[in-house]
Amino acid sequence: MLPQTALLNVFDERISTYQTHVVRCQQLFSEEAVHDLRVSIRRLLAMLDLLKQVAPGLRRQKKLRRRLKRQLAGLGALRDTQVMLATVRAMKGKPPAGHQAFVADLLQQEAHHLLDVKDRLLECPSRKINRRLHQTRKQWKAVVSDINVQQAIRRAVDAAYANVCVRDRRARQDNAASIHRVRIAFKHFRYLVEIMQQVQPVYPARTIHAMRQYQTLLGDIQDAGVLQASVAVFAGVDVLPLQLYARQRYTVLTGRYWRQREKLAGFQLPASQAVSV
Asked: Do 234 and 189 form a contact (C-beta atoms < 8 A)?
């Protein structure tokens, strides 16, 4: 299959997956459904970023990206609340003091965010998003035959990896915002790698697996940081033991990440030959 055709197929798959998860999330606002929709939006945004680099002349992407980002942002608070609920409910041993009050507070927040997200999704311009997606696909199909897709993807992946390395060098173990910036950059890099693997595999399967584990750890740190911040401002009774638990969880995860930072060097784009996956 030609790389141009393969990339068009990836775009089609990203569009279809996004549309499926929008419908699912409108019907079932579970933690999994919200997470899957957020991931599908991020993958679609990565695809649009790549298309913009490959064919900068494509029109009407700005409004499309803005609508998708607005949709993504609307799901963020609900997803954070659901993850915190899952985390504190899964605590082993006797729950610390303040646990039940904090869970009750999270349930109230979840109900509020659910109403907000339902309104956003039910009134969200899904039809406009879908129409713009198909307009972008039509434009892409018209110009793709004149583009060196493999070279363009490699440039995009190289640039994304370089950005991760810059943010990693600036990261500090005691600075949550700096680690968060690494997470965002690495997530974008990995989504571009996913596209590359579908067009022409370059990374071996073990490296792809290691990337997934690395991103999972960074995501766990983000979730632990959100929990720590939420517990810190919670005005419940006897909340100190819960605050200590949240702080310890965050400290353990950041320490684990700090010991594994050297793994990032193994994710640099290898030589241009394709590999079997």
From this structure: no
At 27-77, the pLDDT tens digits run 877 778 888 998 999 999 999 888 888 777 776 678 888 888 888 888 888
Closest CA to 262 of 214, 191, 206: 214
**If we measure between CA atoms, which residue out of 120, 44, 132 comes closest to residue 76?**
120
- Domain with 186 in it: 3-267
Instruction: Tell me the C-alpha distance between 273 and 70, whole Å.
Output: 39
CATH code of the domain in which 228 resides: 1.40.20.10
CA angle 136, 162, 147 (to 5 degrees): 35
Q: Which of 277, 130, 257 is nearest to 193 (CA)?
A: 277
Q: Are 14 and 37 in contact (CB under 8 A)?
A: no
Within 8 A by CB and 6+ apart from 170, the residues are 178, 181
Specify the residue for token string 């949550």.
Answer: 176
What does pTM read for this prediction? 0.85
Q: Give a yes or no: residue 84 inside a domain.
A: yes
- The one-letter amino acid code at 46 reads A
pLDDT (tens digit per residue) in 194-241:
999 999 899 999 999 999 999 999 999 999 998 888 888 876 656 777
Backbone angles phi, psi at 274, to 5 degrees: -75, 155
In a domain, 274, yes or no: no
Q: By C-alpha distance, which of 124, 113, 94, 117 is closest to 230? A: 113
In a domain, 212, yes or no: yes
Q: How many residues comprise the chain? A: 277
Cβ-contact 34, 89 below 8 angstroms: no
What are the distances in angstroms from CA 266 to CA 167, 229, 259, 270? 16, 33, 15, 9
Q: How many domains does the chain have?
A: 1
- Is 248 part of any domain? yes
